[in-house]
């Protein structure tokens, strides 16, 4: 469960003839339980790609498929983690996580069990009755991830989820995400502009060109990760020191640099 | 710090009272008949509460006005907030209603008083109508703006969790708009009092505004002051109660805690 | 929110439909006799009445003359409130001792609805021009004070530090840094003050005045001249709207020059 397919997708904002083209001929196949990161220059339409999978945005041409079905509307099979968390400030941590389950009419006992499990998984037990504004940014994003995970979605869509966090918190959250992916693998579409984050987390990194955005290159990380046994390291900095990591990172950097120069020129 | 502030504040109020004595009694700077002395004020207060003035005793006047405010305010809020929410949520409803609303809005609530008296007479119904009008407009505007200003990702988060419409309204839209709604309620309450006092001054048979009206016609400065202070105390009291409700309802927000 | 914004044409169509329904109901009720004409004259009757009142006197003057009386009072009271309220608010914002002394008194008086000053206003200044001016003052004064106070308190401390670093004297600090930094908030307060002042004036004229639109309306009410009452409402609405538009325009101009989003 959870394959995503972009089939020649285009997106024009505004009116069909006078609007501006944000995406053009985007083709990308994401397999079940695969972690794909999209990187690209700002304004290239990477977030739009994610929003189309989520069902927030319609396609102007082509198709977006999840589990071989065309996406029409948002749904809890595709959980989104937003950059600005988007927690409900009037609900406690527990009520926030529970919200989606109550939509699904999950029976109370089962609901409590699921919520307790995910609170434990994200080490949020001691904050269950806090309101979001009482938590740090990192903690708020943990709640947002818990809220998405508890729905048991086919697909997890993460839109620069660590973009609003400070550097230290960010590193902790990245390690956490790797740990989660090991415990409970999901299909993940991860949007970021941080190249290192993409290389560290993803199985494949898709590089987008500037507007109108299209997939320029897809780089395989998983082969290197497995052969060099990145997952054997506890800490992100140990992985980032490896020659194989540096090599991949530099390659993606160069590819992105070409885009940025083109913007300036 | 707090202590110093309270001390200076109390000192300032004591100073005003002292000044009052000084100006009216000891030096007679304010001519007699223009402003009451503290003694005259006290006598007027005793007179209205013990023997009655303008047809009733003070607490009866005050309760009558308070009751009118509470009823009209609740009616206005119960009609204004849903309309504002609807206009914020549904673009068609907004496009339909907004022009009519914009047309009526510039007419101040006080300007409806003569019409209300023509239509409904000097009784309570006319007061309810004008207060309703005064409190209705801010309720609509702020509920409308409250919905309009909801962070879009909040709605999207709800949609991605498959939220059915009634839950979306009751558990996302309404609470998200609540801080703005309360800003509107505070304005509504203020407007309600102004309007009620004006309406009772223009024509009434009972109420604090009517006390002011009779005191003015009798040229009775001490009773005017009694009426004014009653208006102030009632205004303060209702604002205080609204503040308590707000702190309870908005306990989750940063402002609510502060 | 729920849906995408409507196209301009449909917005206009819906708006037009809303207005048609509004005026349609207002027209149909009295013309079909469902509501007596004395209670609710049709929009056409009211429009005709407004036209008549521009040349014919009612309650001692034509409608434009009444408006002129009201507006003169409004300008005087409003100017007085701004001239006293803004400096007081700024002083409260800059000097803690002024804040601590004036604050509680001001807070106490704020709960008394401005219109409740009418009896004293009439007693002290009469029902001609002085009394109504005092009522406008009572309505417009609090927003002037509150916004000047907020403006003075919310000056970016970095601006003050920058000025201190440049060796700015106290006097120049006030006139060149603190005052200009408070201007956007003060102007916003003036707009609120104008709205409250205008409506307080109407209230005052209903109760104690012998000229002005409010007086005209109350006389019309006594004579059951509903179309004249409504003409007064129209005039009050239009003048109030014009005052608001002018101040809104000024506010936007200042915000634009400061690079704040208008």
UniProtKB/TrEMBL annotation, chain A:
Entry GO MF terms: ATP binding; ATP hydrolysis activity
Give all residue intervals belonging to the ABC transporter domain: 4-235
Does the record's keyword annotation contain Cytoplasm? no
The record's annotation in Pfam families points to: ABC_tran
Alphabetical keyword list: ATP-binding, Nucleotide-binding, Transport
Spell out where the chain crosses the membrane. Answer: none
Instruction: Decide whether keyword Metal-binding is in the record.
Output: no
Tell me which domain of life the UniProt entry assigns to the organism this sequence originates from: Bacteria
Q: Which family does it belong to?
A: Belongs to the ABC transporter superfamily.
Q: Please identify the protein, giving its name as recorded.
A: ABC transporter ATP-binding protein
Give the organism, scientific name. Answer: Pararhizobium mangrovi
Q: What's the source species' lineage?
A: Bacteria, Pseudomonadati, Pseudomonadota, Alphaproteobacteria, Hyphomicrobiales
From TrEMBL, chain B:
Write out the GO cellular component annotations.
Answer: plasma membrane
What broad class describes the main subcellular location of this protein? membrane
Say which domain of life the source belongs to: Bacteria
Location of the ABC transmembrane type-1 domain: 62-238
Question: What does the entry give for GO biological process?
Answer: transmembrane transport
Q: Which residues form a coiled coil?
A: none
> Is Cell membrane among the key words of this record?
yes
Membrane-spanning residues where? Answer: 7-28, 66-88, 100-122, 128-147, 168-187, 193-212, 219-242
Its placement in the membrane is given as: Multi-pass membrane protein
* Protein's cellular compartments: Cell membrane
Enumerate the UniProt keywords alphabetically.
Cell membrane, Membrane, Transmembrane, Transmembrane helix, Transport
Query: Which family does this protein fall into?
Result: Belongs to the binding-protein-dependent transport system permease family.
> What name is this protein filed under?
ABC transporter permease
User: What is the phylogenetic placement of the source species in the record?
Assistant: Bacteria, Pseudomonadati, Pseudomonadota, Alphaproteobacteria, Hyphomicrobiales
From TrEMBL, chain C:
State the UniProt keywords alphabetically.
Answer: Cell membrane, Membrane, Transmembrane, Transmembrane helix, Transport
Membrane-topology annotation of the record: Multi-pass membrane protein
Q: Which GO terms describe its cellular component?
A: plasma membrane
**Where is this protein localized, as stated in its record?**
Cell membrane
- Return one Gene Ontology term, BP aspect: transmembrane transport
Has the keyword Transport been applied to this entry?
Answer: yes
User: Where does the ABC transmembrane type-1 domain start and stop, copy by copy?
Assistant: 67-247
Q: Does the keyword Membrane apply?
A: yes
Q: Per its UniProt record, what SUPFAM superfamilies does this chain match? A: MetI-like (SSF161098)
> Where are the membrane-spanning stretches?
12-29, 74-97, 109-127, 173-194, 224-247
**InterPro entries in UniProt:** MetI-like, MetI-like_sf
Family indicated by similarity: Belongs to the binding-protein-dependent transport system permease family.
Protein name according to UniProt: ABC transporter permease
């Amino acid at each position: 469960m959870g394959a995503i397919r972009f089939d020649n997708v285009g997106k024009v904002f505004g009116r069909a003839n006078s609007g501006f083209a944000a995406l053009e001929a985007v083709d990308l196949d994401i397999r079940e339980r695969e972690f794909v990161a999209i990187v690209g220059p700002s304004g290239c339409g990477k977030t739009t790609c994610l929003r189309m999978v989520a069902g927030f945005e319609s396609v102007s041409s082509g198709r977006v498929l999840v589990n071989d079905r065309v996406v029409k509307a948002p749904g809890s099979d595709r959980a989104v983690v937003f950059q600005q968390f988007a927690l409900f400030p009037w609900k406690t941590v527990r009520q926030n996580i529970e919200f989606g389950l109550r939509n699904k009419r999950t029976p109370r006992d089962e609901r409590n069990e699921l919520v307790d499990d995910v609170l434990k998984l994200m080490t949020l037990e001691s904050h269950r009755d806090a309101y979001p504004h009482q938590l740090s940014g990192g903690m708020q994003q943990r709640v947002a991830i818990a809220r998405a995970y508890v729905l048991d979605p086919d697909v997890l869509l993460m839109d620069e989820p660590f973009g609003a966090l400070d550097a230290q918190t960010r590193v902790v959250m990245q390690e956490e995400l790797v740990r989660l992916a090991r415990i409970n693998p999901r299909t993940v579409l991860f949007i970021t502009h941080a190249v290192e984050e993409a290389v560290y987390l993803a199985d494949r990194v898709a590089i987008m060109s500037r507007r109108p955005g299209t997939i320029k290159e897809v780089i395989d990380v998983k082969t290197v990760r497995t052969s060099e046994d990145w997952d054997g390291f506890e800490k992100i900095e140990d992985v980032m020191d490896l020659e194989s990591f540096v090599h991949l990172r530099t390659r993606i950097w160069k590819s992105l640099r070409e885009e940025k120069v083109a913007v300036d020129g | 710090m707090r202590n110093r502030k309270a001390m200076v504040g109390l000192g300032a109020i004591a100073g005003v009272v002292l000044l009052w004595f000084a100006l009216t009694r000891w030096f007679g700077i304010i001519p007699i008949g223009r402003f009451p002395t503290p003694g005259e004020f006290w006598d007027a207060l005793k007179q209205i509460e013990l023997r009655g003035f303008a047809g009733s005793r003070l607490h009866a006047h005050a309760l009558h006005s308070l009751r009118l405010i509470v009823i009209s305010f609740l009616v206005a809020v119960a009609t204004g907030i849903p309309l504002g929410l609807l206009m914020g949520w549904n673009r068609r409803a907004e496009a339909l209603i907004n022009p009519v609303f914009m047309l009526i809005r510039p007419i101040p609530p006080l300007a409806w008083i003569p019409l209300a008296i023509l239509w409904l007479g000097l009784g309570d119904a006319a007061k309810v109508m004008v207060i309703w009008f005064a409190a209705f407009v801010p309720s609509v505007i702020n509920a409308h703006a409250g919905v309009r200003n909801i962070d879009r990702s909040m709605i999207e988060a709800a949609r991605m969790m498959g939220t059915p419409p009634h839950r979306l309204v009751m558990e996302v839209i309404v609470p998200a708009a609540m801080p703005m709604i309360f800003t509107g309620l505070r304005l509504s309450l203020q407007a309600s009092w102004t309007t009620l006092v004006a309406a009772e001054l223009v024509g009434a048979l009972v109420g604090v505004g009517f006390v002011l009206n009779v005191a003015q016609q009798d040229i009775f400065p001490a009773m005017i002051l009694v009426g004014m202070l009653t208006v102030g105390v009632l205004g303060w009291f209702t604002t205080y109660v609204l503040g308590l409700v707000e702190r309870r309802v908005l306990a989750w927000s940063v402002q609510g805690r502060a | 929110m729920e849906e995408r914004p409507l196209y301009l044409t449909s917005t206009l169509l819906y708006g037009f439909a809303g207005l048609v329904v509004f005026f349609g109901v207002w027209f149909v009720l009295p013309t079909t006799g469902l509501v007596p004409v004395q209670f609710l004259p049709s929009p056409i009757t009211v429009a005709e009445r407004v036209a008549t009142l521009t040349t014919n006197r009612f309650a001692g003057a034509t409608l434009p003359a009444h408006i002129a009386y009201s507006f003169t009072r409004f300008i005087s009271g409003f100017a007085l409130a701004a001239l006293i309220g803004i400096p007081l608010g700024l002083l409260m914002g800059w000097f803690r001792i002024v804040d601590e002394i004036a604050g509680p008194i001001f807070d106490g008086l704020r709960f008394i609805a401005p219109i409740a000053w009418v009896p004293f206003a009439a007693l002290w200044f009469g029902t001609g021009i002085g009394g109504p001016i005092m009522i406008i003052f009572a309505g417009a004064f609090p927003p002037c004070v509150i916004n000047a106070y907020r403006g003075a308190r919310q000056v970016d401390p970095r601006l003050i530090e920058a000025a201190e670093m440049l060796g700015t004297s106290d006097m120049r600090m006030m006139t060149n840094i603190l005052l200009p930094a408070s201007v956007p908030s003060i102007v916003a307060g003036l707009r609120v003050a104008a709205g409250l002042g205008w409506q307080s004036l109407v209230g005052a004229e209903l109760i104690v005045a012998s000229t002005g639109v409010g007086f005209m309306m109350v006389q019309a009410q006594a004579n059951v001249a509903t179309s004249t009452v409504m003409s007064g409402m129209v005039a009050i609405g239009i003048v109030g709207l014009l005052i608001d538009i002018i101040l809104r325009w000024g506010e936007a101009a200042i915000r634009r020059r400061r690079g704040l989003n208008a």
